[in-house]
């Protein structure tokens, strides 16, 4: 029992410090390093999860926006006249002329071609109407307020009005109807 001799407390103290240093160096420091590494991995995983969650929210938002835009696009497509409905449109023009008591004549019709300076293809008609001025206005109002969706994108151009006899006028104008 020489070790525990009261005359040598510094040696006991020195051995205790050495054992404590070995325990700290071989046990506690590696555990602290593992804890640091694990916490860094945890933080990076949290960041990755936040990024994925944000992407998921963006994707959900984009899907919803896409569905809304798709619905709007379908409505926009209905505004343009389908080429196969051209005859129906001409028939509708004739019916409007009859309802508004105008004499109706298509003088020229340009084929369905997309011109270079225009974004959308169009069908162009040169129309002549004979009737009273009020009936001419009724015809134009009916044309612009037509309840059929494909007939809404219409442009009236080059309107000329000539007085014929008392209360009668002749009007000539171009109708441009935008097509798909």
From TrEMBL:
<feature type="transmembrane region" description="Helical">
    <location>
        <begin position="12"/>
        <end position="32"/>
    </location>
</feature>
<keyword id="KW-0812">Transmembrane</keyword>
<dbReference type="InterPro" id="IPR014717">
    <property type="entry name" value="Transl_elong_EF1B/ribsomal_bS6"/>
</dbReference>
<protein>
    <recommendedName>
        <fullName>Type 4a pilus biogenesis protein PilO</fullName>
    </recommendedName>
</protein>
<dbReference type="GO" id="GO:0043107">
    <property type="term" value="P:type IV pilus-dependent motility"/>
</dbReference>
<dbReference type="GO" id="GO:0043683">
    <property type="term" value="P:type IV pilus assembly"/>
</dbReference>
<dbReference type="InterPro" id="IPR007445">
    <property type="entry name" value="PilO"/>
</dbReference>
<keyword id="KW-0472">Membrane</keyword>
<dbReference type="Pfam" id="PF04350">
    <property type="entry name" value="PilO"/>
</dbReference>
<keyword id="KW-1133">Transmembrane helix</keyword>
